[in-house]
Amino acid sequence: MEALSALPQSEHPVDQELRIRTDTKTWLAEVLNGNMYTSFEFTFDGEDLYGEDDGSLTEVFEDSVEDAKILAEDNPNFQFELRRRLIEREELEEIKAMAAGELGDTNTIIVVSDFPPELMDSKTDIGGYNTNRKQTMLRVITRDEAGKIHIDTQSLDQSNRPALEAIYNAFGKKPETGELLSQRIHRNIHPNWQNQTSNNLRSVYDGKLSQEFGGEWYGGRRPADDRNTYEFVETRLGDIIDWYTNQKMLNSTASDRMRFKLAATAEERFETFKNGIGTTRFNMTGNFHEASVSLHGLTNSPSLQVEMSRAERRAARSGKTYSGCGASVSAEQEEELSTIDQLSNSGYGNKASGGKDRFGSLKFKCPNGHENTRPRNKLIDKCGKCGVSVKC
C-alpha cells in the first residue's frame, strides 16, 4: 500500500497527522521481534470502506496493484508481488460484498496471508519481508451487528505449513497445495464469538507446533510470550512516535532518513521491557506514552535525542536491518516506507518497493547535488537538505 496522501482529494478528506501516527505505530509493531496482534475498524458507506483517517480502501488497493505492475516490469523477480496484490484486490471485493450483505449469511472471512513461497529460501530481508521470521499474517475480517467491518490480524512466525493447514482443518476444510493467500474461508460466527476467532485460530496453530516440536508456543514463537508489540508501541513509545510524527509533518522526505534511528530506539526499549529490567528515561511510570508531553515538549528534549543517537550508533555497529510492512531499513540504505495506516499491519500491500512510480525515479539529485528520495506517487517542491526548488 502506498501513502494515500498521493491520491486525489475526495469528499472524504484524509487526516494526515493521524495517518502518519498510525502508520508509524503499525510499522514499529511489525519491526519489533515479538508477537503482534492488531484490530482495526472500517466504515462502509454502501459503496466503499473507509479507515480511521477517512481514507478510501478501494483507492489504496487499486494504487497498490498499479505499483506492483511497475515493480514487476522493472524487476521480473518480483512478479509474485503483483500476483499477491491482485489476490488482495479480490479479497477487498469480498469484504465489501460481506459489508453489503451480499455473501448470504457470511459475517466472517478468514485469510491466511502466508509468507511468499518465492522468498522461503532467501537469507536476506527484502523490502519489508523478514526472511528469518517468515511471518504469516492471519486476518479475521468480521461484520458486526451494527454493520461495521473489523480486521483482526495475528502474526504467526515461521509460516509452518502443517500448522497453517491445521487452521483450515479446524473448519473442516483441506487447503489446496500452493500459496494459501487466495484460499479464503467464509463462515457465519455468532457475534459473541467473533472477537475470539483470531485468538482461537492462533491457539490451533501453536497447538500443532507443540504437537510436532514439543514445548509451548505463542504466535509461532518459542519460548511462548503473549506480550503484544502493537500494545507496547501504543503505550510505551508515545514520545518517539510524537517526535517522528512531528518530523514527518515538517519534512516528509527528510524524515524517511530518520526511521533507522526510530526503529533502533524502539528495539532497545522493547528488549529492556522484555527482560524486565525497567525502562530508560521513564522508569518511574513504566509508561513512555504517559511521560511524553506533546509534539513540542519532551519529544525534542536533549535526553531523548541522546538516547536515540546512542541506539542508532549501536544498531549501525551491529549491522542491524529492521523489516516491517513495506520497508527494510539499515544504516547504509533506507527504503521508502510504502504502507499506510491500519492496512499496513493487516499484512496488505506491496512490501518489495520498486525504485520507480508513475512520475519516474524515486531517487534524484537537486541542482546542488544533494540526494533526495521522494514518497511514492508524490512530487516534492524542494530539496530536503538545502531547500532549493526541485519542481519540474
Explain this structure to me?
With 392 residues, the chain is α+β, with helices and mostly antiparallel strands. The protein is 39% helix and 14% strand. It contains 13 helices and 12 strands. The strands form 4 sheets. Strands 2-1-5-4-3-6 form a 6-stranded antiparallel sheet, with helices on both faces. A two-stranded antiparallel sheet has the order 7-8. A two-stranded antiparallel ribbon has the order 9-10. Strand 7 and strand 8 form a beta hairpin. Helix 1 crosses helix 8, helix 2 runs antiparallel to helix 3 and helix 4 packs across helix 6. It is globular.
Q: In a nutshell, what does this entry contain?
A:
By secondary structure, the protein is an alpha+beta fold. 39% of the residues lie in helices and 14% in strands.
Based on CA atoms alone, the radius of gyration comes out at 21 Å
How is the main sheet built?
A: 6 strands, antiparallel
The largest beta-sheet arranges its strands as: 2-1-5-4-3-6
Mean pLDDT: 83
Please report which band the strand proportion falls in: under 5%, 5-15%, 15-25%, 25-35%, 35-45% or over 45%: 5-15%
What's the end-to-end separation, in Å?
Answer: 26 Å
Backbone shape = globular
Number of helices: 13
Class by SSE composition: alpha+beta
Question: From N to C, what is the helix and strand string?
Answer: HEEHHEEEHEHHHHHHHHEEHEEEE
Low-confidence stretches: 1-10, 278-298, 334-341
Helix content: 25-40%
Number of strands: 12
